[in-house]
Specification:
Blueprint: H1 2-22, H2 26-34, H3 53-57, H4 73-90, E1 94-100, H5 101-113, H6 118-123, H7 133-148, E2 154-159, H8 164-184
Parallel strand pairs: 1-2
Helix pairs in contact: 4-7, 5-7
Amino acid sequence: MRARRTLIAFLALLAVSTLHAQVVDPVIDWIRSHAVPLKTPEAGNGFDDMRPLRALIGQARIVSLGEATHGSREFFQLKHRMLEFLANEMGFSIFSIEANLPEAYRLNDYVLDGKGDPAQLLRGMYFWTWDTEEVLAMIRWMRAFNQSGKGRVQFTGFDMQTPTVAASIVRDFTTMSLRILLRAWPT
């Protein structure tokens, strides 16, 4: 008798869950109808699957690319691929990241002019989240893109989490300016 009740309860639960799964959830339905399936997150795989994004981006000059977790390989692979698409297909010219502004400008010197070692410059940005193979591959792609003549893309930061380099730049500028001022001052 007890086994029979358990079986009936199980079948009732199965029937309810099956009916619930068949109910159309408007949020899931919207996602299914608006999602743009991509064949891979990896850069260097063409843009055929990404072309529908043109209509979504439209005339926007800023595209935000977040991530659900820091350090996940696929998120930065996809950012790299999106940057390739945006630079090659839509003329975007700046990749900006939540990183210290002056350290990012040093990395930008590599991206634009080949100055420095990109791996060392990445390590100099303090956070493990950027010091990955995926970010380094994107930075090297940016340098190659700039050398190709297809366009020009820059790497910038928009944060100030550690003041060390910025304070050094201000101190050097102030010292230089003070020397110039003192030379020009009548004695």
